[in-house]
């Protein structure tokens, strides 16, 4: 993970898997997003999808501004 471009990385993990997640590793890059639940985020996939889409849209907006 340390080789990935930090500006393009959002590492999402469940609060119940903090100790096992690669997101909490000291070498992990990018933004960390801790969500309720474990590895399957309490199976609340619609909420997870909404958060992911929001993050993608935010980053696309930042990229579009940088290009201008």
TrEMBL record:
Domain of life: Eukaryota
Segments forming domain Bacterial virulence: 1-59
UniProt cross-references to InterPro entries, sorted A to Z: VirJ
Protein name listed in UniProt: Bacterial virulence domain-containing protein
Species: Diploscapter pachys
Lineage: Eukaryota, Metazoa, Ecdysozoa, Nematoda, Chromadorea
